[in-house]
Amino acid sequence: MFIKQIEMRELHMRLLHPFETSFGVTQERRILLLKVTDGAHAGWGEVTAGEGPFYSHETAETAWHVLRDFIIPGFLSRKAREIRGHNMAKAGLETALWDLEARIKYVPLWKLLGGTRERIDCGVSIGIQPAIDKLLAEIDTEVKAGYRRIKIKIKPGWDVEVIRQVRAAFPNIKLMGDANSAYTLADVDLFKKMDKYNVMMFEQPLHHEDIIDHAELQKQIDTPICLDESIHSAEDARKAIKIGACRIINIKLGRVGGHREARAVHDVCRDNGIPVWCGGMLESGIGRAHNVALSSLENFSLPGDVSASKRYWVEDIIDPPVEVSSEGQITQRSDPGIGYRVKEDLVERLTVRSQLFTA
Question: Are residues 5 and 37 in contact, defined by beta-carbon separation less than 8 angstroms?
């Protein structure tokens, strides 16, 4: 594949509703896009780093710097492999290259990745709400929309009673709690109390770099632990599984550095009987389309955070927007590449800065 140009853009997009986690509240998103061209075709990728260094040490600003000064020049000079870390920045370029290759070969990206799931099951992630009644109303809306799994954010003081009331109101939904590293082993009794409410998993309850304490917590509770922030590679996954730190793993393209490593994590989990699902990072339609394609791999057996564009944006930057059926599923598209047309006129209007690199 000969790359003629690489274009990097920063867009500002406003979420329909504020999204709150244990890290804080997000409404204004800084979206970094990569467009790679060979002169005849173009592929698109998205950097999923946040505005601040809270979920990850990476931010939109650090990703712009590392892409501009190291990753893109390194790729063009074949020295990118020497760059350590910065997986989200790397994934922005790597996923764009996958999209380009699929378009050149005139095949859907999900098939190029080796996917087998023509329809994927979808769940939603609901942020911390100002009151439990508001949370219950949000869950009711999403259940009626057909979503097959509800994830709620938890943090100290917003956990046991919240889980209890959600389960009382919705006794049959697939429910999970995402802690985003808000707890320590000293909180084991809280998790034991939540054990009795039939939660399908607790996501990343302890430190974002830990697997040792997670293994200890998993020994003491019945509910499966799902690791997220701790897993940056297939090797991380192998080690976590070996010591019993989790029974489920969430795969996020940005966190692991792109499709190649995501497939490797998927394979390690599959070979060890650990189910996976695709996590979301408040992506625009481009990042969302890549998540849809990734979720076609066989071991993505749990509903992921791959929900409809209309939950997040007044107008998404792809056409058609990502849509979820009344049965809570997304059907893979047959068009080449990510399967969606990028609305380049809207991208241009939302762009606050850009830079072009020529091979």
Answer: yes
pLDDT at 80: 66
Q: Pairing mode, if any, of strands 175-178 and 329-331? A: unpaired
Please identify every residue annotated as catalytic.
Answer: 153, 252
Provide the CATH number for the domain formed by 112-331 in this structure: 3.20.20.120
Residue with tokens 């339609």: 285
Asked whether the beta carbons of 355 and 6 are under 8 A apart, the reply is no
Mean pLDDT, residues 135-155: 95
Domain 5-107+340-358 identical in fold to domain 112-331: no
Hey, where are the domains in the chain?
A: 5-107+340-358, 112-331
Distance of CA 281 to the CA centre of its chain: 5
Determine the topology of domain 5-107+340-358 in CATH.
Enolase-like; domain 1 (3.30.390)
Q: Are the C-beta atoms of 281 and 50 separated by less than 8 Å?
A: yes
Taking only the tens place, the pLDDT of each residue in 169-193 is 999 999 999 999 999 999 999 999 9
C-alpha to C-alpha distance for 298 and 301, rounded to whole angstroms: 7
Cα torsion 126, 131, 134, 139: sign: positive
Task: Give residue 79's pLDDT.
Answer: 66
Portion of the chain with pLDDT greater than 70, in percent: 99
pLDDT, average across residues 279-292:
96
Residue of 90, 112, 89, 88 whose CA lies nearest to 100: 112
Return the exposure string of 276-314: e unless at least 16 CB atoms fall within 10 Å of the residue's CB, then b.
bbbbbbbbbbbbbbbbbbbbbbebbebbbbbbbbebbbe
What CA–CA distance (Å, rounded) separates 83 from 93?
Answer: 14
216-227 burial string, b = 16+ CB within 10 Å, else e?
ebbeebebbbbb
pTM, full prediction = 0.94
